[in-house]
Amino acid sequence: MVDRYWYGDAHRISQEAPVPVVDISVAEDRPGGAANVALNVVAMGVDCTLVSAVGNDEAAMSMRARLEGAGVVCDFVEVADWETTLKLRVLGQRQQLIRLDFERPPPAWVAARIFESLDRCMADADALIIEDYDKGVVDAPEEIVAAAKKAGMTVVVDPKFKDLTRYAGADIIKPNRSEFEHAVGVWRDEDDLARRGTELLDRVDVGALVITLGGDGLAVIQRDGAIHRVQAGNVEIYDVTGAGDTVAAGLGVAASLGWSVVEGAHMANLAAGLVCERIGTAAASAEEINRTIARQPTVEHGVIERNALIAAVATARARGDKIVFTNGCFDILHAGHVGYLAQARGLGDRLVVAVNDDASAARLKGDGRPVNDLESRMRVLDGLASVDWVTSFSEDTPEALLAALRPDVLAKGGDYAQSEVVGGDYVRGYGGTVRVLGLFEDSSTTSIIDRIKSD
Predict the structure, then answer these.
(1) Could you tell me the pLDDT band of residue 238, with boundaries at 50, 70 and 90?
(2) pLDDT tens string 327-342
(3) Does 320 lie in the same domain as 239?
(4) Confidence of residue 370 (pLDDT cuts 50, 70, 90)
């Protein structure tokens, strides 16, 4: 789509009708719709090919020049006797007064040609963003998703009001509030939101939902029912046009880099805040996003709850830090623990230690364990110079945490074999590393307890 802007001053009311008269002084065309998503992708520093349909007209030629000048590879299906979709906005004193849309559906044959173009591009791409404005270009989304997954791509979908089951197999669907409510109804509270979102994910067979909620930020819902809220930034909003495009671009870029959906949502949210501070469709550059990330308050170290940890890890990774993760009961901290945690910290820039809570430690270790309660175990670990963040988990395994954090390295002590490391296959699956560290002899909580009992 082409977003056309007419800017001017509006100091009087028309005598013909109670509407302002705008004296137009500036006219500007900007790439809109999927073209704006592509502009945001390349602004974030990632290569992008845009596959779409355009008319054989001046608007398409102008948009192609703008896109290619920014670094977007344009793979367009040109349609004779059809005009490129145009949205005209008239602004007076920086306020949008009216929008006029000029559009009609493309011929039926266009969707098949689009799929042919996509098929040529998929072999060299890491991620696919499907911008489905429900205007006839994405006619068979199920076929596109299936082909992309077969090619090993991560698929992010920005839908309108199609039946969401048509995107089955996608990794992320990004509806806005009204699109989500159209699919599941109005939710009552946070628990109801998570329940409806999880049921939808199961029904449509999609990995995660990222719901854009305007001033309420984003909600990330995953298949296991976990919900993570990303608060909107404290920005001065001039125009929300294209903010959803920026979120879609951010999610796609994060996916191509192997980030978790939660980390991608944090980055995309910051980028969307930047474009809301500008008039019209706009792109947030990698440099701007990195500067914004650097200014974000974060917990640099210490005992931290799960959602705050996810945000802190996302910020650290965006700054270029390598994240190391380990887990255990750490019931009676001994020299072996201290030694292997120091080794683990040496594998990266930040070390996350996840600790079994009292109930899961008892299930794992048996009667009489843990000797020390969770708060005491976490406080001792927090005192080690090698440890950046300490968090707890109640599940029998840390796999949910691993899915949320996607650490670069999963480390375990030397009494494990590679095949025995819980979550190892998952971490290796997204390109992470699993390390089994050195074994410290005569260092065991169980042996310490046994010696105490024998005395």
Answers:
(1) very low
(2) 999 988 888 888 889 9
(3) no
(4) confident
For tokens 């006219």, the residue is: 27
- Give the Cβ contact number of residue 420 at 10 Å: 10
Catalytic residue of the set 3, 139, 171, 245: 245
Half-sphere exposure of 167 (CA within 13 A, CB side): 31
Nearest to 414 by CA among 433, 442, 432, 440: 440
Q: Residue 26 and residue 135: Cα distance in Å, rounded? A: 30
How many CB atoms sit inside 10 A of residue 379's CB? 14
Distance CA 156, CA 245 (A): 12
Pairing of strands 172-173, 154-158: parallel
- Look up the domain containing 412 and give its range: 302-454
Nearest to 301 by CA among 370, 389, 240, 376: 389
Structure tokens belonging to residue 400: 């949910």
Residues 142 and 288 in one domain: yes
Q: What does the alpha-carbon distance between residue 259 and residue 248 come to, in Å, rounded to a whole number? A: 14
| 316, 264: one domain | no
User: Exposed (0-12), middle (13-18) or buried (19+): which is 357, by Cβ within 10 Å?
Assistant: middle
| Catalytic residue list contains 75 | no
Final residue before a domain boundary, out of 258, 273, 295: 295
Contact 133, 106 (CB under 8 A): no
